[in-house]
């Protein structure tokens, strides 16, 4: 079974400003600093934030389910402002998903605002696992909401 879940939010900053956060390793540092109950640490295993980068994301001790996952950036396109990654170890792969990918994108609305969007794509053989897919997006919703607040405050203060 294949599925896709997405969410988006309007942010009152220029698209290039939002992309400075989403399109770089700064997003990982932001999540660790601003959302420590969500992610404990992010280690760069390989790369510099461009296509091919591999990260190990470790969750706080006591987090139910999965202790960590490794993701690889399959595409980082600065011109079109999107980043596509795939879990390659741990995480949902260990839970039985045959594919789990995340895409972040920043789309210009006008010169002073943009739409930030994430899309989760997944594949599972066991249909029962698909029922957990909606809980998988809650952390990403938290990230884009927190990023909106951070970017808005940074730009307008």
TrEMBL record:
CDD domains named in the record: Bet_v1-like
Annotated Gene3D superfamilies: 3.30.530.20
Gene Ontology terms: cellular component: cytoplasm; nucleus
Domain annotation Bet v I/Major latex protein: ranges: 2-151
Gene Ontology annotations of biological process type: abscisic acid-activated signaling pathway; defense response
GO MF terms held by the record: abscisic acid binding; protein phosphatase inhibitor activity; signaling receptor activity
Short name of any one Pfam family annotated for the protein: Bet_v_1
Family: Belongs to the BetVI family.
Name of protein: Bet v I/Major latex protein domain-containing protein
